[in-house]
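Dear colleague,

As promised, here are the two records you asked about, laid out in our usual form so they can be pasted straight into your sheet.

NAME FIELD: protein one
SEQUENCE, THEN STRUCTURE:
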Amino acid sequence: MTKRELVVDVAERLGYTQNEVSDVVQATLDAIIELLSEGKRLEIRNFGVFELRTRDSRIGRNPRTGEEVPISAKRVGTFKPGKALKELVQNQTPGASVGIAPAAEPATQPGAEPQGTAF
């Protein structure tokens, strides 16, 4: 699934426009990137933890020539799934969709009339 497909799916589930959902998704990703760049971690209960890890320097090998090449230490972002996510993925049949129910009713926009309400 791409970010665009995620935006379309969430917009359909919640009844918001794709532009609104796209802004929220991008702001969320930007916040995660900012936290990681500052060396902080982000824990989302029942989902997982985003954090930075440092990879030590090492000696690698050029696959074409076989020559040894020094690889410097670097920081990388990692994700560790939470318990609920692990269990959901473990119990999922391969190829089946995840059984997450959509929102019961679309959310109303601020200042908009509620949908389906009779006066």
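NAME FIELD: protein two
SEQUENCE, THEN STRUCTURE:
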Amino acid sequence: MEFTAEMIAAFLGGTVEGNPQAKVWTVAKIEEGHEGALAFLSNPKYEHFIYDSRATIVMVNKDFSAQYPVSATLVRVEDAYAAFARLLDLYVANKPRKSGISPQSAVAPSATVGEGAYVGEFACISPGATIGKNAQIFPQVYVGDGVKIGDNATLYPGVKIYEECVLGDNVTIHAGTVIGGDGFGFAPQADGTYKKIPQIGNVVIEDWVEVGANTCIDRATMGSTVIRRGTKLDNLIQIGHNVQVGESTVVAAQAGIAGSTKVGARCMFGGQVGLAGHIMIADGVQVASQSGIANTVKKEGVRLMGAPAYDAREYQRAAIAFRSLPEMRLTLARVERELNELREKTE
């Protein structure tokens, strides 16, 4: 699809500076702009790229003042970053959705596939499973017995959904993710071996959740592992059995949450954060990358850092002191030596 600068400005409530009939049919980063591409400039750190960019149209903030000539047509808006995000939403919404059931897929007679849904090649829809309207089930997806998948859900290639799990409307699961694998439950025996504890619960993922590639969310021992509405999980995350993650929480890559932990709403966890099992995290807690949380966090909205994690500002002060330890050690040795010399003189 092609869009003119005039059309883009009208959609965003902006103004055109340059050729209103300039046409674009793709998007690009400003430093990689080329003919027919739409780019944006929001961060002043990237301003120097606009003067050499070959993008046909560049969106800028209304208060942007060019220091040198710009060859691109400018579309001025209140917030270029937010406006660009709106355009990307429009682009995605207008992408054609697949529909129909591939003859190379395996759909059980007792399964239900909603109107307008797509089931790709070598996908397997097991007995009793329900696929919602307009859902997108890409090739090589496995949907287990009795699984329920909501309307407009998207499961990318290689996703595996074990039996009896429930996914809400508008859920997106990226390639290679496993939903409903067994929780890590093993009971130590007198002879030093471990007996597996059957994991008979399921996983419930509410509406508008997005789960990144190669993430694993374990089924509950009993009851449900629950990911609440609007939560966003990155790639390569491990969610243990019986965990509950509150709504609109975001978790970055390689984080891990151990079994039976309850995470509040609107929390933010950086990459490689680890949470111990059987603890509770209050609403709005923010945890810096590579931090470890070993105990319950009761106070809402705190920022934590370190392993074990504690208040981020205290951690930063401690980190400054840590860098000074070699010098402090030399100072302490000098003071100790001087004290010994004084003691010898007085004796």
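A couple of things worth noting about protein two: Helices lie at 5-12, 47-50, 80-93, 312-323, 325-346. The mean pLDDT is 95.

Best,
R.
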